[in-house]
Design a protein that fits this description.
CATH topology of the largest domain in chain B: Ubiquitin-like (UB roll)
CATH architecture of the domain at 408-455 and 615-756 in chain A: 2-Layer Sandwich
Number of helices of chain B: 5
Strand content of chain A: 15-25%
Number of strands of chain A: 30
Number of strands of chain B: 5
CATH superfamily of the domain at 408-455 and 615-756 in chain A: Aldehyde oxidase/xanthine dehydrogenase, molybdopterin binding domain
Structural class of chain B: alpha+beta
CATH topology of the domain at 408-455 and 615-756 in chain A: Aldehyde Oxidoreductase, domain 4
Number of domains of chain B: 2
CATH superfamily of the largest domain in chain B: Beta-grasp domain
Number of helices of chain A: 18
Radius of gyration of chain A: 27 Å
Oligomer: heterodimer
Shape of chain A: globular
Largest sheet of chain A: 7 strands, mixed
Bound molecules: FE2/S2 (inorganic) cluster
Structural class of chain A: alpha+beta
Radius of gyration of chain B: 15 Å
Shape of chain B: globular
Distance between the termini of chain A: 68 Å
Largest interface: A-B, 63 and 59 residues
CATH class of the largest domain in chain B: Alpha Beta
Strand content of chain B: 5-15%
CATH architecture of the largest domain in chain B: Roll
CATH class of the domain at 408-455 and 615-756 in chain A: Alpha Beta
Strand order of the largest sheet of chain A: 3-5-1-13-10-11-12
Order of helices and strands of chain B: EEHEEEHHHH
Largest sheet of chain B: 5 strands, mixed
Distance between the termini of chain B: 44 Å
Chain lengths: 756, 156
């Protein structure tokens, strides 16, 4: 390293890494099968657990017969509410302790005879092998006294009650009198939409390995939030946080499904404690559906009024979503309607029903993905009513300031996104008359919709260590759920310190590391970047402090702000020196610095910012569909997404996030729905054969582009990209279908029966 | 029962294999080869794809006993020492890997495709990989990777 960069001959073409399509650092491990996911660790004496699921929606357990299960050779223990060790109840949620939000449900598993949903684990079998555990679990017989249960969302919808606002999420709001304005509007649409429950279906089913050593606990699990999981386990099992170690170096996809703590995790830990053995609990795909929540169903009304020119005079968006009696996350379904259009009057309401089902949870862009379907479909229908091009209608109603409250946007480029996107997609070729474009037996349609997702950050603690041999180690307990967490932070570090990318190693996925932000809310990259920038700056300051003490240093008398970090050192014009030279002279073998903001400071800053600004990632989707004239089959034949996501750190991983979001949105539009039996509350399609996620052959080439303008208020100008991709997608498909066929489908998914 | 077969060129056997046990189970749980993934156990997702006598199969659907005396090749057996196979290299390079859970199965399937078809068309690729679900990538980059691997392979 020291010979590579001569002090006197700095490379003039110092290459920056941020923005480049750098290969991910874990590519080799993942393509060779070397990467070890949660279920793939081995411990001597490890036992295996399997769950027994309740078959009633609500009731009390009258008797459990475990005799047959216990008689199976290899069964170690059958845990039920009659013999399981107690766990502490789930904590009361509080914003002062964010990890209290981690509970998937409030149920005290195996500490109660109460059944709260059809599928709740009511017994756990621990055996020498996974097959034995599963087989024995099928032999456990449970008798229930059934109680009346409310499980039918559609039937319960009229009984919804108002959703409460929180600091982070207002539930409703009014600007002027939208009801009166709608009635008076010369042109209007008033539509009722429904969206079904959905499941994440990350390819890796949830798995936990729990190992107790006295009162110390080690857990292997693919989680989106190491810090929350650790705090939650400490609280539930009554041990200090420092006695819990969570290891999560690889996570086989999450999408929100691994953001909270669900039954399988707790029961693996409980079973390990009860049997004094390391225990692995790897859920089957069905087990995931029965014990990990999914996306809420919704019913929404969007009514729009406009004058003859297409200026919105009224926007009404109301929603009903669910939570469960035992927990769940109220979604901000109408959120997009606060931000997208400059309507003269706005009326927003969110209501909730509480059901005897498994708690719902966050799934990629909660609120916005379903809300944007309704809002953006209604905008399209209004454009049809008005006889105006749907892009033109959006352009006319593009606000200068946030429509609800006049706050400023930190950054907003939707006009540009539509303009550039329309050009590249060939929107001009579109004949606006429905059903007018044909290709043999296919009816061709083109649709657009806006993508929008509010941006936030979460605090991260980061340390950066630079050794005399040039090796840099960044440490932060990030979660790698597929986004390239280590890769992008390595790029940022390499640029900030001016060192080669190969010199930087980022350690993630372990609760022993400095605490990271969760991988959720599209907030991980920006949060960690802020910590990395801070730590790198401090590290350079201490390098400079060492150099300035030396009379012969070319950096003598310089301030950090005058210097450029490049070529493995700090330079002012052509003069400067390498970190290696600085360390050698000072007789040091490394430098280390920590960065990040404390939680309280962070919250204060965030709330202060929110009072003044609105910031979001956004974009424009362009979709072309072909609908079979005779069968109603819909094929998406072209897609272009033009995004404004601030500065992009890694073109390769960013494109993957956006594209993955779009494809999940196409699934939402056309095939995905979790079917809940309205009588029993049982999920009827808990498998990949009956819940249809898009496959290669369903998906056309997906073009994604971005404008690459940094957001002035975010670290490095980056806006999170994990969720914006899915927002608006279902509407773009529905709008294209409307154009192809003249039919407006209001109920997702758009299956062929709805087009015949 | 005892089952003996060759895995990645080495003879392996497992004892006390139960009749209903899958090849995937034997590979992952008994032989310490967790490269092939378990994501559905019903032949829907392709995460568990391995070669059985040179033909890609869903290992979750193959009874372990059926592998008796046969040749199995898993994702762990595609690289030659330190040198990655062209398909592995192309996946990493093209951004076709995100969470990585679908990757081993896809790589085996793609490896087979370009061994059979020198320059597969896009439609052929999509069709061949239609049984391999990926929830992360949106598929585009996987196609790029297969095209690149096919090109490189044809060039050598
Ligand atoms: S695990 Fe074999 S196909 Fe899904
Ligand atoms: S990379 Fe995650 S499922 Fe394909």
């Amino acid at each position: 390293m020291t010979t590579k960069y001569a002090e006197t001959e700095p490379r003039q073409d110092a290459v920056k890494h941020v923005g480049r399509p750098v290969d991910r650092v874990d590519g080799r491990a993942k393509t060779t099968g070397e990467a070890r996911y949660a279920a793939e660790h081995r411990y001597p004496g490890m036992a295996h657990a399997a769950l027994v699921h309740a078959t009633v929606a609500r009731g009390r357990i009258e008797a459990v017969d475990t005799e047959a299960a216990r008689a199976v050779p290899g069964v170690i223990e059958v845990l039920t509410h009659e013999n399981a060790p107690a766990m502490k109840p789930a904590p009361k949620t509080s914003l002062m302790n964010l990890s209290s939000l981690a509970s998937g449900t409030t149920v005290s598993y195996l500490a109660t005879d109460e059944v709260h949903w059809n599928g709740q684990p009511v017994a756990v079998v621990v055996a020498e092998t996974p097959e034995t555990a599963r087989h024995a679990a099928s032999l456990v017989r449970v008798a229930y006294r059934e109680l009346p249960a409310v499980v039918d969302f559609a039937a319960e919808e009229p009984n919804a009650s108002p959703q409460k606002s929180s600091v982070l999420q207002p539930a409703g709001g009014d600007k002027g009198d939208a009801v009166a304005a709608l009635a008076a509007a010369p042109v209007s649409v008033d539509l009722r939409f429904t969206t079904p429950p959905e499941h994440h279906n990350a390819m890796e089913p949830h798995a936990t390995i729990a190992v107790w050593d006295g009162d110390r606990l080690t857990v292997h699990e693919g989680t989106q939030n190491i810090a929350w999981l650790r705090a939650h386990l400490a609280q539930r099992f009554g041990i200090p946080e420092r006695a819990v170690r969570v290891l999560s170096p690889y996570v086989g996809g999450g999408f929100g499904g691994k953001g909270f703590v669900w039954a399988g995790t707790l029961l693996a830990v409980l079973a390990a404690r009860a049997t004094a053995r390391p225990v692995r609990l790897a859920l089957t795909r069905e087990g995931v559906y029965r014990t990990v929540g999914g996306r809420t169903p919704t019913v929404q009304r969007v009514a729009l009024g406009a004058d003859g020119d297409g200026d919105l005079t009224a926007l009404i968006h109301t929603s009903v979503a669910m939570t469960a009696r035992i927990g769940g996350m109220p979604e901000g379904v109408v959120s997009s309607s606060r931000h997208l259009y400059d309507a003269a009057t706005i009326h927003l309401r969110q209501r909730l029903v509480r059901l005897d089902l498994l708690a719902n949870t966050a799934m990629r862009a909660p609120g916005d993905s379903v809300g944007s379907f309704a809002l953006e479909s209604a905008m399209d229908e209004l454009a049809c009513e008005l006889g105006i091009d749907p892009i033109e209608l959006r352009r006319r109603n593009e606000p200068e300031r946030n429509p609800m409250d006049g706050k400023r946007f930190t950054h907003r480029m939707l006009r540009e996104a539509y303009e550039v996107g329309a050009e590249r997609f060939g929107w001009r070729e579109r004949d606006p008359r429905p059903g007018s474009m044909r290709d043999g037996r296919w009816l061709v349609g083109m649709g657009v919709a806006t993508a929008y997702h509010p941006s936030l950050t979460m605090p991260a603690d980061v340390t950066v260590r630079l050794a005399a041999d040039g090796a840099v180690v960044v440490r932060c307990a990030l979660q790698e759920i597929g986004v390239g967490a280590a890769t992008v932070q390595a790029q940022i570090t390499a640029d900030e310190l001016g060192v080669p990318l190969e010199a930087v190693r980022v350690e993630i996925g372990d609760s022993e590391l400095p605490a990271g932000p969760g991988a959720g809310g599209s907030a991980q990259t920006a949060g960690a970047a802020a910590g990395v920038l801070d730590a790198c700056r401090k590290l350079k300051e201490s390098a400079l402090a060492l150099a300035r003490r030396a009379p012969d240093s070319p950096l003598r008398g310089r301030r950090l702000d005058d210097l450029e970090a490049r070529d493995g050192g700090l330079y002012h014009g052509g003069r400067g020196e390498t970190y290696a030279a600085i360390l050698a002279r000072a007789g040091r073998d490394h430098l280390e610095a920590g960065g990040g903001t404390g939680m309280l400071k962070f919250l204060a800053k965030t709330l202060n910012e929110r009072r003044r600004w609105v910031k979001a990632a956004s974009g424009a989707h362009f979709c072309e569909v072909r609908v079979d004239r005779d069968t109603g089959e819909v094929r998406v034949s072209r897609w272009l997404g033009m995004f404004d996501v601030g500065r992009v750190i890694n073109a390769k991983t960013a494109a993957g996030q956006l594209r993955g979001g779009i494809v999940m949105g196409i699934g939402m539009a056309l095939t995905e729905a979790t079917q809940v039996d309205p009588r029993t509350g049982r999920i009827m399609n808990p498998s990949l054969s009956e819940y249809h996620v898009p496959v290669h052959a369903d998906i056309p080439r997906i073009d994604v582009h971005w404008l690459d303008e940094p957001d002035p208020t975010m670290p490095l100008g980056l806006l999170g990209i994990g969720e914006v991709g899915i927002t608006g997608v279902a509407a773009a498909v529905a709008n294209a279908v409307r154009h192809a066929t003249g039919k407006r489908v209001l109920d997702l998914p758009i299956t062929l029966d709805k087009l015949l | 029962m005892r089952v003996t077969f060759t895995v990645n060129g080495r003879e392996e056997s497992a004892d006390n294999v139960w009749e209903g046990e899958s090849l995937l189970y034997v590979l992952r749980e008994r032989l310490g080869l967790p490269g092939s993934k378990n994501a559905c156990e019903q032949g829907e997702c392709g995460s568990c794809m391995v070669y059985l006598d040179g033909v890609p199969v869903c290992a979750c659907l193959v009874a372990a006993g059926q592998a008796e005396g046969r040749q199995v090749r898993t994702v762990e057996g595609l690289a030659e020492g330190d040198r990655l196979d062209a398909v592995q290299e192309a996946f990493a390079e093209c951004g076709a890997v995100q969470c990585g859970f679908c990757t081993p199965g896809l790589i085996v399937q793609a490896h087979d495709l370009i061994a059979r078809v020198e320059r597969p068309s896009d439609a052929e690729i999509r069709e061949a990989l239609a049984g391999n679900l990926c929830r992360c990538t949106g598929y585009e980059k996987i196609l790029d990777a297969v095209r690149l691997a096919a090109r490189r392979k044809a060039a050598t």
